[in-house]
Request: fold
Amino acid sequence: MDNTLPGGAEIVQGYSSHDYLIANGTTLVSSYASHGYFINLPANAEIITVQAPSGTPDYNKPSTAIYSLGSGKVFVTGLTIEYSVARKGPEWEAFFREMLMNNLGYSQFVPVAPVIVIGGIDFMTFNFYYYIQYKRALGKFNTMYKEAVAGGMDNETLGLAMTQNDTAATYYANASRYDPVVSNFPRVYIFIDLREAGLHQKQAVGILKEAMEDW
Reply:
């Protein structure tokens, strides 16, 4: 079995029930929080987590890292993210969301057709895309709405925008009713709700933006 990764890094099998998030000192705990660590990482690698099998970080066993390769980046992890996000607490969801936004959240791709894979359709790309669109638009809406209120925008326009915002929130809540959304990206049953959440949140931003252009 070839354990060599792009750039010459290698993954070594090694289990740990605790992994340490260097940036904020969080310890991620799970049944085998990680299944491996990395060796021979490039010199430019940023170490994000390390194994901490006894509760003490072992900086010689990095379990998540990101490094430059050519004109892009390589993100590697030995963590059991999907399992742990669904079953092991909010710190895992927060970690996964941060990794997505920091490493994939600024991608400009727009999916135009489902990706066909053996056994059916892979909805991972679509669900990720609409999740990012919803989160971005929600952040814009919150900022713009405060500015609109402070600037004296009329109540009718504010109400129209808030209706779209509330509708988006309802769809997002529906997508969250099974488990955290980020743990269900591969699942078809959150696709429609995530798509509608993203589209309605975008409409909410559009209403405010159009009204502000007339000021």
Summary: The first strand starts at residue 10 and ends at 21. Residues 10-104 form one domain. The two ends are 64 Å apart (CA to CA).
